[in-house]
Amino acid sequence: MDERLPAHLEVAAIIRLAESRNGFATVLARGERDAGTILLLTMDRGNSVTLFERMPQLDGTRVYTESRSEEPENKQEFSEYLDRRRRQDPDIWIVEVDVADAQHFIELLPR
User: Fold this and answer.
1) Chain segment 16-43, per-residue pLDDT in tens
2) CATH number of the domain at 7-108, please?
3) Which pLDDT band holds residue 2 (cuts at 50, 70, 90)?
4) Region 93-100: what's the mean pLDDT?
5) Alpha-carbon distance 69 to 14, whole Å?
6) Residue from 109, 102, 82, 96 nearest 26 by CA
């Protein structure tokens, strides 16, 4: 039996957690309701955009891992990467989270 939380519930929890930490979160792309992959775009007051993706670990957990950062001088490349991911996997969720300490926020998420 799969013990994963359905994607739509996990996304709702991420949004609530961001709000509870005086931040903001919104869904940029809605994926498959139950099993869609979730990508998190984190930032601090609109700056320092970092992409986190959940990656399986050897111990069976799945943790959010930094996979890419937006280069301020080449923002288009980052957007193109997200567009490409969305075309490759239409079931993917993209959630933007703006919080004061993105790394700490990611650590609060369940594994």
Assistant:
1) 999 999 999 999 999 999 988 999 999 9
2) 3.40.1530.20
3) low
4) 95
5) 20
6) 96
Side by side, the strands of the sheet bearing 62-69 are 24-29, 93-98, 38-44, 47-56, 62-69
Positive/negative CA dihedral, 97, 99, 102, 105: negative
The rounded radius of gyration (Å) of the Cα atoms in the chain is: 14
User: Which token pair is 83?
Assistant: 């567009």
The span from the CA of 15 to the CA of 69, in Å, is 21
- Residue 64's CB is within 10 A of a number of other CB atoms, namely 21
The type of residue at 63 is V
Type of residue at 49: V
E strand or H helix that includes residue 7: helix 7-20
